[in-house]
Amino acid sequence: MPGWALRFPVRIRNVAPMHPDLEKLIEAGKINDALAERLDQVAPGQFILHNSWGAGKVVSWDLPAKKVTIDFESRDGQVMDLQFALQKLSPLEADDFRAKKVEEIEHLRELATSDPVGLVVFMLESHGGSMTVDAMEKQVSGAIVPEEKFKKWWEGAKRALRESKRVIVPARRTESLNLREGDLTPAEALLADFADARDLKAMCKALEAISSDISLFKKDAEPLKPVIDQVDEAAKKGTRLQLGPAIELLSIRDEVIGALKELELAADALRLSNVLLAEEGRLGDEIGGLSTARQRAVFEVFPEAFEDRWVAMITGIFDQVGTRGVAEIAKLIHEKEKIADLEEYIRAALARRDLGPDALIWVARERKGMAANVFGPEVGAAILNLLETDHLADGPRTTTRLQSLLSDDKKLLADIVNTMGATEARNFGRRLMECPVFSDLDRKSLMARIIKARPETGELVSGDTKKKVENLVVSWESLERKQAELDDLIRNRIPQNTKDIAIARSYGDLRENFEYKSAKDMQKVLMRRKGELEREVDLARGSDFKGADPSAVNIGTVVSMTRASDGAKVTYSVLGAWDSDPEKNLVSYLSETGAALLGAKPGDSVEFRNHDTDLMESWTVDEIKAYNP
């Protein structure tokens, strides 16, 4: 026994007689006092804590065999190696909340019903006075309060906790519940919390609590006047470096003042409208971090701050304020009967292909509501474009929720292709099938929805289409670029990533190792891209496009056309799969424009989308000639 590598943490415990088995070993000279004290922490009758299995009680041990048997919350009769137990278990006092879960669970269940405040206070006392709401739920839900009833129970417990003022209840689940010290009235406790706040975020939290319980100050608002002055001073100092919290603080202050007629702003006080006007260049990201209710309150100040420019200003940050902010802006604009301005902004952004994921999610969800007038083919193209761009970019993904929406909303793809013509629907389906974001299984599932809505796209998954895909015509220059990218991946980026993984692994605990997770995520991106490039290069057939038949538009032809609406002239060169260059009027035969032109002859009328205006246009083919590189 003396040779065991014992590393059990020593804690100050209530003095209690040592287990008789250990006293006998000490008397026989087989172990010393220090080792006996450590062993006593896992003696029968003691309470312990395991990181994964929770609390437990030692029921028996076999010292000669170095075994210990423990009844855990989730499993009874767990036999553990004694040395392993000493290394992995932490002692618990018998009056700890977690120990009571093991031995007196029925009492805790009764307490949850009769005194939820007392239950939460007891739990916090056993956890050092602070724990997150998520951690509290793990302790209570299922074991003490039935899982299906927990949400309702917690709503009632929160109200009771706030009324009691014994616990500071956070506004967000990720923040901590904290025991309050001292014997104060509810109003005094709220003021004390504000006085203890040391930064703008803490002041926002404390002032939000005051606003929530503003009725406590209805009879006497005088104690709040110094608070209003402190808010003004803190916001003036913090606006430059902490704009978001400063905006939030001023918004809550205005809410408090609006609820009590005895309070008013001083003439020289900082106005929220003035802050918005002064900082108009950096409002989007700052407001995006606020809660939904607070965002709405700030947006409602825009007309006062920007007057005639308010619609332009608020649509200007439409795609910067997160999913919640996007919805709140749309609601406000709709209520103010300015929805046409928002539609104009969205159409222009879709035409530029720069509408972000949060805005696209809103358009998709509101396609039969506020966004009905802007929902069309360009929305589908924008979604795929954004998914592909994000997939190929370095860094964390920003389109995960957009991709999930495309999969989860069973009718979205059908609604998208039903706004398209036959050629557009085929091109959209082809692009989705080639999109590297989706797994083969997801791609087939999504394509099935398109085919169900538009049966003519079924040819895309037929043998004929497969044959066309296998004969991918590309220019020699574009093929060399693809091969160079593949070579760089194989020779440089993948080997460097392998080194990065090895270095990150050396940092220790992989569960909390951000560098390791980041390097492994990048490995997935690189290997996926390698597979895509290998498939593309394998399918590609290089060409210089000489000798194309100019009797009709083919790959390697130059087509001149006249626009039916105004007689404007344009000349396009229809080239390989990877040769699009709008500035040089080069189009890929797989693009929407190229696919519409293929097979057309002089005198034929063709239709395709003008990507500057996002409108379908009709053109007459005037002349076709062979491409001369």
From TrEMBL:
SUPFAM superfamilies in alphabetical order: FKBP-like (SSF54534), GreA transcript cleavage protein, N-terminal domain (SSF46557)
Specify the Transcription elongation factor GreA/GreB C-terminal domain's residue ranges. Answer: 551-613
Pfam families cross-referenced by the UniProt entry: GreA_GreB, GreA_GreB_N
> What are the Transcription elongation factor GreA/GreB N-terminal domain coordinates in residue numbering?
474-540
Query: GO molecular function: any one?
Result: translation elongation factor activity
> What keywords does the record list, in alphabetical order?
Elongation factor, Protein biosynthesis, Transcription, Transcription regulation
- Entry protein name: Transcription elongation factor GreA
UniProt organism field: Haloferula helveola
